[in-house]
Structures are given as structure tokens and as C-alpha cells.
Amino acid sequence: MRIEIDNFDNYRKSCREFLEREIVPEHQKWEENGLVERSFWEKLGQSGLLGMSVTPEFGGLGKSDYRFAVILTEELIKSGVTVPGIVAHNDVVASYIFALGNEEQKKRWLPELCSGKRVAAIAMTEPGGGSNTADIKTVATRQGDYYLVNGGKTYITNGINADLIVVAVKTEQGQQGQGISLLAIERDMPGFSRGEPLKKIGWNGSDTAELFFHDCKVPITNLLGRENLGNYYFMSAMPRERLSISTVAVASAEHILQSTLEYVKERTAFNQPIGSFQYNRFMLAQLDTEVKIARVYLDNAVDLFNQGLFSLVDAARIKWWTTELQMKVADRCLQLHGGLGYLRDSIAGKNWLNSRAQTIYGGTSEVLQEIISKSLGL
Ligand SMILES: Cc1cc2nc3c(=O)[nH]c(=O)nc-3n(C[C@H](O)[C@H](O)[C@H](O)COP(=O)(O)OP(=O)(O)OC[C@H]3O[C@@H](n4cnc5c(N)ncnc54)[C@H](O)[C@@H]3O)c2cc1C
């Protein structure tokens, strides 16, 4: 049954009910296997949660207001369901294809991405390094009406399940950052293979893999946008990707803090609730204030994004600041859980492990601060 997307409150309620009913009961199994089942994607697609901003002619809901995406992320976080795979599928790949694809490509791929029949991934990072996105070594050589792709990618979210992968390749030698193109590589293309799921310390319900291309034959009709403009497209898409990670950060920080507040009121030491000691009260007061600042900051960013005014530097600032805050909240809150927090399967332990990836993918905190400082003329 498709979820109605008429107003924010109804949409939130429907998302929550759907996740509780269809996804949460299965989630533990997926975490144990380190892989979500295909049924996850199909259920999300049937309910209308995929490709929300894609227009109806291509199978989406045509809701470009980013506040709907924020609600979905918040409900995923609250229900403890893995988020990175959905962000990569929805916020990154579907958006790339919708923005860059020609009419034929959109018709070919978007309806199946929106229905969950196909799973998408984005592959930029290479084993030699991911921070410098201009330094791509995977090469695509044009031979008549196809490219021959050679190279490899790593840490790719949805890497095991993905049927359609937007891959950054070098199509022309020259200066770093130039001559990069985006190719949509499909599941059964000859010369494409993938490794075993990578064993991560967190986000276990999200599959992550290495991808290998050995003389992989990709038709030129799978080129997204124009040849050699990949870096420009990548920069244009970054604000959305970083906004989505910031949304995860703020929703997670709020959720972690809320559940910890409940815990510290119940748990006692020295015959009083641990939350009533002055040290803990002040620490929680500080976290509460910072999380509330983050919410206002995020709301403002979403507003700017909806107006088309959210820049690459805005995205760097908020992604850096909110993900560092999430990590700080997760760390302090784990401490408040004592030994329980150190158990891998405790909520506080899981929150800490999941939070750790946030300052790494989508641009590390260090790289983001480089971007911010350059904008200051430094
Ligand atoms: C869970 C997870 C999911 C991911 N999913 C995807 C995905 O779907 N697609 C994809 O393409 N990639 C994905 N990645 C990869 C991610 O984007 C990279 O890990 C990230 O960009 C960093 O690259 P790297 O790991 O090669 O680190 P490196 O580039 O080797 O950097 C190592 C360290 O050096 C620091 N450093 C680098 N340059 C500078 C500098 N100029 N100044 C100061 N410090 C610097 C970095 O900040 C970092 O701390 C994922 C990663 C994780 C952990």
C-alpha cells in the first residue's frame, strides 16, 4: 500500500507505522547477515518511500520539498533501521539520474529504482584513497560504441545488492579533477565483479563492498550527462548528499539524547538517579543545548536547499559540525550507560558504532574544513 504524502504529519505517521510493521521485525536478521534482503527494497518501493523527488512520469512522487526526505530519515533513525543505503539510493543516485539522465535513460532506470526492483549505488572511492575525489584512477577507454572500464572501487554502500551503479571514471588524461565522467554500470555487464560484503564495525544492516572492473564493457548509452564533466556534476550533487548526512546526524543526536535522558532517570548509583549528579546534569544540559542549535541549523539549511540557495560551502559546514556533534553525543551518552554502553548489542553501543562512520563518508571532517577555510580566503 502506498503511503499518502499529503501533509507532513500524516506522512510521518504513515512512515512510522509502515516501518514498525514491515521493516523493524526483519531488521535484526539483516544486521546479523550484514546484508539487507531484496524484500526490504521492494517493500520500500511499494510503499512509495523511494525516489520521492522523482516526477510521477518516471515512477516517483514528485515531492521535491526536502522536508519530506527529512521526515523519512527521522523515522528510520527512530525505528533503528539502517539509513546509509537508502540515502545512497534515494538522495544520491536517483537524484543524479533524474538531473543528468536523458529521456531514454530516465525511462530505462528510474521506474525500477522507484519501485525497489533495482537497487542503486554510487562508486567514487578507490582503494588508493577517497578524500581526493579528483584523483580517480579507474579508466574508461572509448572503443566504438562502448567504453572499456578498468579499475576498482571500495567501501561502496549497497555494493552487494546494487543493480545500477554510478561509477566515476577517468575518460581523459590531464590535470587532476579534469577528464572525469560518470558511467551507469549495470549488474551483469561483462568484466564487472564484486567482493564479499566488507565487515564493518557499525551499520551492519547496510551492505558495503569492493567493486572490480576488468575490461568491463559499458555501452556509451550509459554515460550520464556529458563526457569529462563528472567533477562538475559531482560538485553540484554534493550539497544534497551532505545535507542528507547532516539530517541523519541531527535526527540521531536527538534520538540518542532522548533515550539517554530516559535511562539516567531510571538508573541509580549512590541511592540516586545517575542523571541527578551535577556533573551529569550539566553535561546533559550542554548536549541538549547543542542538539537544539543543530536542529535550528538544519531547518535553516533545508529551507535554503528548497530555495536552491544551499551552497557547497554551506553543505561542508553543516555536515562537518552536525556529524562531529552526533559523535560527541553518542560518546557522552555511551559513558552514561556505563558497562552496558560497551556491549555491542546495547542501544548505546550500537549508536556509538553507527555514529562513527558519519564523519568519514560523504567527505571527512578534515576535507570539509579545508573547503570551509578556502571559502574564507585562507
Ligand atoms: C560506511 C561507509 C560507507 C561508504 N560508502 C561509500 C559509497 O557508497 N561510495 C563511495 O564512493 N564511497 C563510500 N565510502 C568511502 C568514503 O567516502 C571514504 O572512506 C572517505 O571519502 C575517505 O576516504 P579514504 O577512506 O580513502 O581515506 P583517506 O583519503 O585515505 O584519508 C585518511 C585520513 O586522512 C585525512 N586527510 C585526507 N586528506 C586530508 C587533508 N587534505 N587534510 C587533512 N587530512 C586529510 C582524512 O580526513 C582521513 O582522516 C564509504 C565509507 C564508509 C566508512
From TrEMBL:
Entry-linked SUPFAM superfamilies: Acyl-CoA dehydrogenase C-terminal domain-like, Acyl-CoA dehydrogenase NM domain-like
PROSITE patterns, alphabetized: ACYL_COA_DH_2
Cofactor(s) listed: FAD
Entries under Pfam families matching the protein: Acyl-CoA_dh_1 (PF00441), Acyl-CoA_dh_M (PF02770), Acyl-CoA_dh_N (PF02771)
Keywords: FAD, Flavoprotein, Oxidoreductase
Gene3D superfamilies referenced in this protein's UniProt entry, alphabetically: Acyl-CoA dehydrogenase/oxidase, N-terminal domain, Butyryl-CoA Dehydrogenase, subunit A, domain 2, Butyryl-CoA Dehydrogenase, subunit A, domain 3
Domain (Acyl-CoA dehydrogenase/oxidase N-terminal): residue spans on this chain: 10-117
GO molecular function: acyl-CoA dehydrogenase activity; flavin adenine dinucleotide binding
Record domain Acyl-CoA oxidase/dehydrogenase middle: where: 121-216
The Acyl-CoA dehydrogenase/oxidase C-terminal domain, residue ranges: 230-376
Family in the record: Belongs to the acyl-CoA dehydrogenase family.
Name of the protein: Acyl-CoA dehydrogenase
Highest classification ranks of the organism: Bacteria, Pseudomonadati, Pseudomonadota, Gammaproteobacteria, Enterobacterales
